[in-house]
From TrEMBL:
MF terms (GO), sorted A to Z: carbohydrate:proton symporter activity
Keyword Coiled coil recorded: no
Keyword set includes Membrane: yes
Protein species of origin: Aspergillus mulundensis
Protein name: Major facilitator superfamily (MFS) profile domain-containing protein
Length: 195
């Protein structure tokens, strides 16, 4: 049974990643990250709630939530994380920013690799699927952070992004902001149409 679940999880993960190829440019990185995190939060809380009861049906429901999580994670933040990391760094600091970001992510991953067995296993804290409450709770500050600080980078060049950072455009306004390059481009199009 666990082999079948693992195969199902991997197929759902790959399917989510394929769906992200379309969504990342259609909806934008900020919206996909924000809405994906909200969906993942709901899945985690439902999973935790189902695990509290402990009946066979509820535990199967919690497992189904893990499978859904695999799909939605890869369709949203699994796809946007690296894109946002590379696009939001300034040109001058891009390499250092990416290195620090990946080092931080991997360090947190190592920390969870040590902590999770203690939280999950029956001979320790025995939380099992109730871990959904912990990770679902951690999602709330993440949602707030994304809302306030994650800029929209869809369709923007590195130069346009640098301009918006220099002008201190709020992250929530990146999608609607007109850069100097856009303004000049529209003026040139108007000049050509006038001829």
């Amino acid at each position: 049974m666990s082999f079948k679940l693992q195969v199902t999880q991997q197929v759902l993960s790959m399917s989510g990643n394929i769906v992200s190829w379309y969504l990342i440019d259609k909806t934008g990185r900020r919206a996909l990250t924000l809405h994906g995190t909200i969906i993942l939060t709901a899945i985690l809380w439902v999973m935790g709630g189902l695990a509290v009861g402990g009946t066979k049906g509820q535990l199967r429901g919690a497992i189904a939530m893990i499978l859904l999580y695999s799909f939605f994670y890869n369709a949203s933040i699994g796809a946007t994380a690296y894109t946002c990391l590379t696009k939001t760094a300034t040109s001058r600091l891009r390499v250092k920013t990416i290195a620090i970001g990946l080092a931080a992510a991997n360090s947190i991953g190592v920390m969870w690799a040590f902590v999770l067995p203690y939280l999950f296993n029956p001979d320790r804290a025995n939380l099992g699927g109730k871990l959904g409450f912990i990770f679902g709770g951690l999602c709330f500050p993440s949602i707030a952070f994304i809302w306030w600080y994650q800029p929209e980078t869809r369709g923007r060049s590195y130069e346009e992004l640098d301009e918006m950072f220099v002008k201190k455009v709020p992250a929530r306004k990146f999608g609607e902001y007109r850069t100097e390059a856009e303004t000049l481009g529209l003026a040139r199009v108007a000049d050509v149409k006038a001829v």
